[in-house]
Write a structure and sequence with these properties.
Helix content is 36%, strand content 28%. By secondary structure, the protein is an alpha/beta fold. The protein folds into 2 domains: 3-73 and 149-227, Rossmann fold; 84-147, no CATH class. The chain has a 6-stranded mixed beta sheet with strand order 6-7-8-3-9-10, sandwiched between helices. A hairpin with a 2-residue loop joins strand 9 and strand 10 (206-212). Helix 3 (89-99) crosses helix 4 (104-117). The radius of gyration is 17 Å and the shape is globular. It starts with a strand and ends with a helix. The structure holds adenosine-5'-triphosphate. This is ABC transporter ATP-binding protein. Residues 3-229 form the ABC transporter domain.
């Protein structure tokens, strides 16, 4: 199982947002760190097949990012995820499941299981409008997992989580990383230190560091040094 990113590039008019990124990702949790505007969202959207690269390719075990079969293996939580405030948590998941092509029985079974996994079972029948930021975020993570994805891409998933939820989230992500490729972006260094097996640092559209968090004594300092001149 390998996600192969080859010289992936995105240019917006005169701005190169992602600049010839090549990476091979296998099982595990990858933390993508970068300042605002470094190119993280652009990069992730290309990995999801939502944004067409200017050049370069993304393939998963030979399947191209634009193929249906690739989509079937993908779970994605965008940064600006649109929730339906009048839906309750359960109905929202059932709705997302139907969009992903799950059968009714399968959708019910899976939604129930995922609500348990993200500890939202007791509010499953409450309107999303009443959820806290962290609860919405957990619901977003649950919808990304409906199709048992092998590639899980989460754009700033820890935004809005309180300290308790952060710990719960870390445990969940760790578990997912044992069987899937999990790529999550953040600009909070401590999130990455505790969750990621591999740290990817992005700067001006390029991956400037790719290695284990353990390799660096003080990730926060390393990160700040890297970005100091910006
Ligand atoms: N549609 C667009 N048209 C033109 N420029 C864009 C567009 N989308 C992004 N950019 C530019 O590309 C660069 C990378 O943006 P991107 O959103 O990928 O960064 P990011 O690392 O995800 O930042 P953030 O954490 O703020 O989301 C930025 O300079 C941004 O202004």
């Amino acid at each position: 199982m390998e996600l192969c990113i080859d010289r992936l590039t995105k240019q917006y008019e005169n701005k190169i947002a992602v600049d010839r990124v090549s990476l091979q990702l296998t099982n595990g949790v990858y933390g993508l760190l970068g300042a605002n505007g470094a190119g993280k969202t652009t990069f992730m959207r290309m990995l999801c097949g939502i944004l067409k690269p200017t050049s370069g390719t993304v393939t998963f075990d030979g399947m191209d990012v634009s193929s249906e079969e690739y989509r079937a293996e993908l779970g994605y939580l965008p940064q600006d995820f649109g929730y339906y405030p009048d839906f309750n948590g359960m109905d929202f998941l059932l709705y997302m499941a139907s969009l992903k092509g799950l059968t009714k029985t399968e959708a019910k079974r899976k939604s129930k299981k995922l609500l348990e996994l993200v500890s939202l079972s007791d509010v499953a029948k409450k309107k999303i409008a009443t959820y806290s930021g962290g609860m919405k975020q957990r619901l977003g993570i649950a919808q990304a997992l409906l199709n048992d994805p092998k590639i899980i891409i989460l754009d700033e998933p820890t935004a809005g989580l309180d300290p308790k939820e952060r710990v719960r989230f870390r445990n969940l992500i760790k578990e997912l990383g044992t069987e899937s490729i999990v790529l999550l972006s953040t600009h909070i260094v401590s999130d990455i230190e505790h969750i990621a097996d591999t740290v990817l640092m992005m700067k001006a559209g390029q991956i400037v560091f790719n290695g284990s968090a353990d390799e660096i004594d003080d990730l926060e300092k390393f990160y700040l040094d890297e970005f100091e001149e910006e």
